[in-house]
Amino acid sequence: MKKYKYYFRKPRSEITKDILTLLLISGGIALAATSPYFGIAIWKSLKNRNKYPKTKVSSKFCELRKRGFIMLEKDGHDIKLTLTPKGEKMAGYMQINRMKIQPPKKWDSLWRVLTFDISNLKTAQRNTIRKLLKELGFQCLQKSVWVHAFNCKAEIEIIKDFFELKENEVRLIVAKDIGDNRELKRKFSLL
């Protein structure tokens, strides 16, 4: 899958999220070409299918296809549904919004210090990253210096890839001592 570029709008409906997430996870769905009910076949694939009526899923599928998020590929007698690059961007945005940093059973006594220096030309990205760091539980030490108590290297790599940031723009440092950390330990429930 290609790297995502930043996508500014959230999808308006849960059906859109579920359909795009399903296609993102599965890499596509193969359907029998003899079936004219593609939307219903998608509906049967959804894990939350009792949440939506069949007709609504079918119409949402058609809308996503017309807007260029989903592509149909013919392969002999089968048809495969896949995400277009535009669909991958939207699905990637939804994925980054659901990230969480899981606390371990026992803290390793190391602090993860994240520094970022993002150009003024990328103000929207910088502000979005700050908001995302707050949602992930990072605590702000200074304007562009954030700290977290738990391992978050994978999540930071996803953020860097998603926003196409370089190593000199975002840096994760693992430190044993960051000075007076009583307030931080309290915020991370480590006392």
From TrEMBL:
The chain crosses the membrane at residues 20-43. Gene3D superfamilies: 3.30.70.2650. It comes from Candidatus Nealsonbacteria bacterium RIFCSPLOWO2_01_FULL_43_32. Residues 105-179 form the Transcriptional repressor PaaX-like central Cas2-like domain. It comes from the Bacteria. It holds the Pfam family PaaX_M. This is Transcriptional repressor PaaX-like central Cas2-like domain-containing protein. Keywords: Membrane, Transmembrane, Transmembrane helix. The keyword Transmembrane applies. Signal peptide: none annotated.
